[in-house]
Amino acid sequence: MRGVSPPENAGLPDLLRHWARHGGDRPLYRHLVNGEDREEVLTAGEFLRQVNLLSDDLRARYEPGTRLLLMFPTGLEFLVAFCSALCAGMIAVPIPAVGPNRFARAVPRLLGIVQDCRPGAILTTPALSVMRAVAAETSWELAVPDWRSVVLDPADPRTPSDHFAHSAAEDIAFLQYTSGSTAAPKGVIVTFDNLRNNQRAIGDLISRTDRPTQSVAGWLPHYHDMGLAEKIFGLFHGVPTTFFSPAHFVQKPVRWLDMLSRYKASTTCAPNFALEVCAKRIPEVRRGDIDLSALNYLILGAEPIAASTLDRFAATFRDCGFRSSSYLPSFGMAETTVLATGASLREPVVKSICKEVKIGSLVYPPPNGNTDTRRVVSCGPPPEGHSVEIVEPESKEILAEGFVGEIWYRGPSVGAGYWQSEPSAVSGFNGTLADGRSGYLRTGDLGLLIDQELFIVGRIKDVIITRGRNIFPQDIEHYVAASIDGVSAHGVVAIGSAPEEAESEAVVILVEAHRTLCSTHDNYRLHEIAMEIHKEIQSEFEITVQEVVLVGPNRLPKTSSGKLRRMACHQQWKEELFPRLADSLLQDQGEVRV
């Protein structure tokens, strides 16, 4: 299917027709329903037919530009619905699937999206259509004019029209609601031009002739920017995609590597924590069944990338055929469609910078004699046609290489703004430098450039200032997760607490204990964990932890994509809403109270 290239700048309808014409009987999508061996498959030809049928229905029911909420579990239905909405001239709005058991927790976020984008309908599966009645019974007044079930029926006797709406480059393709890890979710406007340019940039990174992308496999959620890009890459580049749900990975991480091995996948995507979990939880006896020799690109993103995690994963799976040159560290966000920078076809570039970081400070190379450093991983340069600058956020002056500042980004992948947003939010998409150049996205992330490559160090709003020092919570979080046994790999949050009249912030650490500790009610070990965290953070960072709060698995607020919601964690801690397994409060006398 990959052999015949589509026309330059082909739109989505033309791409679907092209792949159906050249290899229409070959699998385009394969969904592993149970995360292992139960397959649902759509060929390129059948995928085009299903998109055509649903697109005909949508055009008959709704006006062009209607926002359609796509509330689907992992599966083929979402992919057909997403492409059908775009081909019908509608605006797709992917959201997580919400069942009765999760409805109460999900309603505030879902209601916020509904009130913001005012959808004309919700497309979902017959099984989830029952949520309409549940929604109607709540006081949230979750009102959407129409709910429509999507069923993929290969025996459907109807003849599709083969007519799709014409969409201009500047027309809106979909709204990507941000994950809300730092604030209320906002709908990023992604145009067809944004989508095409970003997919081209990804293709340029992972479609080298010496190490081509023959197939994609993954488990990231389809309603998240990185997961969506992973799912639709095959539509733009003509390669088959195999996938299963995030829940199947969480339940049994080895399934991911088994999938890569079984289907000889050449490309996959993952956040840092997934590598950490695999390196820790997949035993040596099980690794003998895994073959990663076909894997050319492991795209890393969605959260900070730790050099120690890359080292550990590469060492653990080297005998499985994994090559560390397959790592592709990247930086991106919904506001840049997904990819902003990336580096491939080489060993990861890791630099040691000063551990003490302040905006405008020189951290690389560290001053002579400064051994208080930390390692950071290069996320590569921006793709062709895009640019990145490190900027002092107040003066708007560009900082030289090696200095830390806010990351400003410009290029055709940057979205058109937030849907129905206030002018102050829109201005974040049109930052103007001191020299007068404009059109930059102000990311809110802090980083530096070394040899024209981007290194991430944190977020402006996340910095904890304690006794005159700037501490990035991500450094504390990764250290605790990596060094303390019994702590969930993706369940640590460090926050700053500033009591009234205090001169600096105190550090509070919220920790999800591992499920096995909770099931055995090992209070002694929980007490030990709290004490170890106090001791290790004091030793490594030379700061005093005010409080360690241990909670059960999955108790810390997370976004739909699995990121920890730092602001929500902070608020719930202030309101003492966490059901605590054990508290330890370091008193002036040095005592620990449990």
Please provide a written account of the structure.
- The structure is a single chain.
- The chain has 594 residues and is α/β, with parallel strands linked by helices.
- It folds into three domains: 12-253, 3-Layer(aba) Sandwich (Rossmann fold); 357-461, Roll (Luciferase, domain 3); 464-593, 2-Layer Sandwich (GMP Synthetase, Chain A, domain 3), CATH 3.30.300.30.
- It is built from 17 helices and 27 strands.
- A five-stranded mixed sheet has the order 23-24-25-26-27, sandwiched between helices. A four-stranded mixed sheet has the order 2-1-10-9, with helices on both faces.
- Helix 2 (44-61) packs across helix 3, helix 6 (192-206) crosses helix 7 (225-237) and helix 10 (272-281) crosses helix 12 (307-316).
Question: How are the elements arranged and paired?
Answer:
Layout: H1 12-21, E1 27-32, E2 39-43, H2 44-61, E3 67-71, H3 76-87, E4 91-95, H4 103-117, E5 121-124, H5 131-136, E6 147-149, E7 172-177, E8 187-191, H6 192-206, E9 216-218, H7 225-237, E10 241-243, H8 246-251, H9 254-262, E11 267-270, H10 272-281, H11 284-287, E12 297-300, H12 307-316, E13 327-332, E14 339-342, E15 350-354, E16 373-377, E17 387-391, E18 405-410, H13 423-426, E19 441-450, E20 453-459, E21 464-466, E22 469-471, H14 473-483, E23 487-497, E24 506-513, H15 515-520, H16 523-541, E25 545-551, H17 566-574, E26 580-586, E27 592-593
Parallel strand pairs: 1-10, 3-4, 3-5, 5-6, 9-10, 11-12, 12-13, 24-25
Antiparallel strand pairs: 1-2, 7-8, 13-14, 15-16, 17-18, 18-19, 19-20, 21-22, 23-24, 25-26, 26-27
Helix pairs in contact: 1-2, 2-3, 6-7, 10-12
